[in-house]
Amino acid sequence: MITRPSLRTTRECLERAETARTSAGVLIAAGDDWFVSPLFYSAYHLVRAALIDDPIFDSPELLRARDARLTPECRFLTRHQGRLDAEGRSLGINDVVGILYPAIAVEYARLHMASRAIRYGDGLGVITAQSVHDDYAVIRDAWDSGLLSAAETDTTTNDWN
Q: How far apart are CA 99 and CA 68, in angstroms?
């Protein structure tokens, strides 16, 4: 259980990501589908580390060019999904991943969905353990290769999008 305030440094996020990945490994070895939840949280903390480090958050102009709702404080979002409030629809991490890191957005959303299925539903159902591993691997590889950066996914300068 997380009892401390939100992690606000890359190092803290990476340490938490590794702890979660280790916990997932223990559950995998035990044959327990609950491995999905810590594996998702490992991905979540990798994404949080990327957001904290991403230089796009140092430029309100670049953020607005990507999406008018993005602000420098979005690098410290902790809720997964946006919500409606007095100012309109606010962003969650899932939204920010979709805007800034489209190369991992589908995998990240599926991991979140799988984690919710384990925690609040009837288990994985049609989601396979292999697909969860594969989705996590995409996010982990993107982090490890330095591709979790808005500059790496700028749809205005890259041909792949």
A: 11
Is the Cα torsion angle 40, 46, 49, 51 positive or negative in sign?
Answer: negative
Residue 64 and residue 124: Cα distance in Å, rounded? 38
Q: How far apart are CA 40 and CA 71, in angstroms?
A: 25
Tokens linked to 65: 């060019």
Q: Which two tokens stand for residue 106?
A: 């589908």
Taking alpha carbons only, the member of 42, 18, 26 closest to residue 111 is 42
Structure tokens at 22: 């280790």
* pLDDT means over runs of 10, the chain (161 residues): 63 96 97 96 96 95 93 89 68 94 96 95 89 97 93 51 34
Within the chain, strands assigned E span 84-85, 88-89
Yes or no: say if 37 and 118 are a contact pair by the CB < 8 Å rule: yes
pTM: 0.86
Q: How far apart are CA 65 and CA 14, in angstroms?
A: 29
Between CA 158 and CA 155 the distance in angstroms is: 5
Q: Residue 9 carries which DSSP code?
A: S
